[in-house]
Amino acid sequence: MMLTKKEPETFTYEEAAAYIEEIPKFTKKHTLEHTKTFLKRLGNPAADRKIVHVAGTNGKGSVCAYLQAILMAEGKRTGFFTSPHLVSVNERIRVDNIQIDNETFLKVFRKVLKIVRQMVEDGIEHPSYFEFLFGMGMTAFAETDVEYIILETGLGGRLDATNAIDNPALAIITSISLDHTAILGDTIEKIAGEKAGIIKPGVPVLFDGSSKKAAEVIKAKASELGVSCREVTKNAYEIQEVHRKYIAFSRRSAYDKDVIFQVPMCGCYQAMNAELALEALEYLLAGEEIHMDRWKEALAELHWEGRMERVGAHITVDGAHNPGAMEAFVESVKALDESERGEMVLLFSAVSDKKYDQMIEYLCENLDVKAYVVTQIEDERGVPAEKLADVFRRYTDRPVYCKERLEDAVRTAMNERGETGEIYCLGSLYLVGMMKKLLAGGAIDA
């Protein structure tokens, strides 16, 4: 597709989406200087907006979603660049929480491709998959009247394409745990160093202080650059109730200590994510009139796909895909009342560059599960189902079913859950996306 002579103006939406999906086959990740050159060629789109830059191992998508929801509740027009997508690539670029439509996507694609063609003619390498979409996102935001832009890093922070933005209004670093160790480092300290790479002179940073090792690295980087640094710990809030459909918490600040916030997801970790967003917004909107009742309502009504999300009468999907996220998932499930948790059937899959052995061991040792069903992700990095099943059998004496096709796996899980059981689907956001497509197609009545 890259070698095609088609003029940008002649591409259809389907051809544009296909072109983007082909990009990884002919280019690679580039330096930040390359991304900056790309953005400069595009005219540095939307660089004048108030940008919130969010990095972290787990929780960054949720924090971004909370930020977006509350900013919108305060009447602020908001752009959001996120990844990965679950079903459609359009999901990555949102304005006021609505993914850009196909017409807008195509218009922006044509504009960006025209610039990219000029770059290649001038001897500058074609942007990577993530860079290209990032350029599209910023171009789309520039063509709307968004006041705030929320940028979620793709991988790491220091070398991530989103870090080419020089002057964000605020940097936020969420929970840090071991993930992408081959790229980011094999210790919490090394990974924290990569995430802390988004900290810039003159830009305040707010971060999740749950990991002492990570906190020390982040505080040291902030001190080195002389920037304001705010650590948020579990002392900032108190969980009041954990329900299958929501978690309720109060804040310990004097300003609103008697206010009970509800997040419509049962993950205990969502209290920290929401607190990070609330404190970030108190900073961003300082000096303006804020409406705490609107903030409460925005959080309570939020819908964030793939995070302890109920997708059927007895099916919950969660994008947990690394050891830290597995610990959070187990904590959340255990916090549910036993009658709500039900007999658990786990449907699991993973990609090969994740620590799936460690994830599986933790699940088997820390949850009372009726049966496990493993399947394979429709991606070249998907771990073969039988290989995953072998790992499960090393750590559990419970039944382990191996079904290569997701539809077969879901039917098996539904049979195993019996009359009162619950199915939890986790291990990869790719799997969440596959589940949503399957259920939306109507092949299975969930």
UniProtKB/TrEMBL annotation:
<keyword id="KW-0479">Metal-binding</keyword>
<protein>
    <recommendedName>
        <fullName>tetrahydrofolate synthase</fullName>
        <ecNumber>6.3.2.17</ecNumber>
    </recommendedName>
</protein>
<feature type="domain" description="Mur ligase C-terminal">
    <location>
        <begin position="306"/>
        <end position="422"/>
    </location>
</feature>
<dbReference type="InterPro" id="IPR036565">
    <property type="entry name" value="Mur-like_cat_sf"/>
</dbReference>
<dbReference type="GO" id="GO:0005524">
    <property type="term" value="F:ATP binding"/>
</dbReference>
<comment type="similarity">
    <text>Belongs to the folylpolyglutamate synthase family.</text>
</comment>
<dbReference type="InterPro" id="IPR013221">
    <property type="entry name" value="Mur_ligase_cen"/>
</dbReference>
<dbReference type="Pfam" id="PF02875">
    <property type="entry name" value="Mur_ligase_C"/>
</dbReference>
<dbReference type="Pfam" id="PF08245">
    <property type="entry name" value="Mur_ligase_M"/>
</dbReference>
<dbReference type="GO" id="GO:0046872">
    <property type="term" value="F:metal ion binding"/>
</dbReference>
<dbReference type="InterPro" id="IPR001645">
    <property type="entry name" value="Folylpolyglutamate_synth"/>
</dbReference>
<feature type="domain" description="Mur ligase central">
    <location>
        <begin position="54"/>
        <end position="280"/>
    </location>
</feature>
<keyword id="KW-0067">ATP-binding</keyword>
<keyword id="KW-0460">Magnesium</keyword>
<dbReference type="GO" id="GO:0008841">
    <property type="term" value="F:dihydrofolate synthase activity"/>
</dbReference>
<keyword id="KW-0436">Ligase</keyword>
<dbReference type="GO" id="GO:0004326">
    <property type="term" value="F:tetrahydrofolylpolyglutamate synthase activity"/>
</dbReference>
<keyword id="KW-0547">Nucleotide-binding</keyword>
<dbReference type="GO" id="GO:0005737">
    <property type="term" value="C:cytoplasm"/>
</dbReference>
<dbReference type="InterPro" id="IPR036615">
    <property type="entry name" value="Mur_ligase_C_dom_sf"/>
</dbReference>
<dbReference type="InterPro" id="IPR004101">
    <property type="entry name" value="Mur_ligase_C"/>
</dbReference>
